[in-house]
Amino acid sequence: MKVAVIGGGAAAFAGALHAAEQNAQVTLINAGMLGGACFNSGCLPSKMMIRAAEMVRQPASHPFQGIERHRPSVNLAKHVAQRQGLIEELRYRNYEAVLKGNENISLMGGTARFHDRRTLVVDTQGETQHIDADRILIATGAYPHIPDIAGLAEIPYWTSQDALLAQRLPNHLMIIGGSAVAVELGQAFQRLGANVTLIARSTLLSRHDPAIGTALREILENEGMSIITDSVPVATRFSRGIFSVKLNKGDLRGDALLIATGCEPNTRLLDLEKAGVGIDNRGAIKIDRSMRTNVADIYAAGDCTDMPQLVYVAAAAGTRAAANMLGGRATLDPTLIPTVIFTDPQVAVIGMTETQAKRHGLAAHSRTLGLEHVPRAVANLDTRGFIKLVADKNSGRILGAQLLTPTAGELIHGVGLAIQHKLTVRDLGEQLYPYLTMSEGLKLCAQSFYRDITHLPCCAG
What we know:
The chain is an alpha/beta fold. The protein has three domains: 2-144 and 264-334, FAD/NAD(P)-binding domain, CATH 3.50.50; 152-261, FAD/NAD(P)-binding domain, CATH 3.50.50; 345-452, Enolase-like, domain 1 (2-Layer Sandwich), CATH 3.30.390.30.
């Protein structure tokens, strides 16, 4: 069977490899660097930058007496060079070398568009080729959304990719956006030494439980960040190295401007209408839980679809799409997908909030545990944040979790398993947890549904 895969990121690569493992002949069509935006200019470099910023913050502001505080100097250009060197090394090891060793995958550099439902037109190095395939997987990812603000198109603003490649720290970085990329990079630049002002249209992390945005705002402001919420930029200017942003609440000036207002599905140039593939009003390809589009034998996965824009979702969807186009019946449940935001402390959520559960007709209730009740957080002298669990009031079954804690990303998967296996708060509360780990917070929060945890000694069972 001949399979064509459009793209070179997580979804495309996972799909191509799985199809090749099933002895399909795969043509992988990719216009950019292998690995996609997450690997090359998003997830990997941003997490390295966030970790580097933590290394600057900790010695300068740790809470322990008897240990001298000092602020390390920062050479951003050297850090960027190290980061890009690692990305190039990993790109070769995990992508290029893997393709070289796979006889069932042919890599074609170029941009693809549909001629009809079985044929792609590929433009490569000034030539045009037609590729016929029995099955086609669309995995073209997404690109930064740029809002319609007067003057913005004429000025040298940053996208997140530009910010991650910056060779110098700005004195005053203005960020338009209030979601994951905005808060992650905003905190990182603040810790590295820039003054950061974040401008959000509504609240911080407005798609999540309001308690998260409220608590995170206080944490970021305590680190020195300026945050303006419920504010809409109406115009921008750039002159003599200075950006001006006109708001409905006044004007701001700074020497760098980052636009972090989300991403749009990269589908505009695919000529999807020639194959009859359906899209929503954002341009995202509509798929079912099997990654099938409305057209037989055409599948889609990753950020170009109406699934959550997360790299691990993309990879899982690509593998399942490949399995299904070769006769499988794999599905992906979008209701049990964990989300992690790599601020400090981290944000991690899964399942339903209490409000969402009630909208679904469930008799839901919740408990919120402040980290001052978690022994490990107390020992760390860092009790910022909370753990919140949502449960069905009648059965006790866990429905969701919202975490704002250090290592929240490491904890959230356990809650996902609890939801998947229909565990109750008592089931979670009676598990054994190693003492002086953050995971104990899950036990204590679960126990707070049925006992007063403020009267428990340390290590209480």
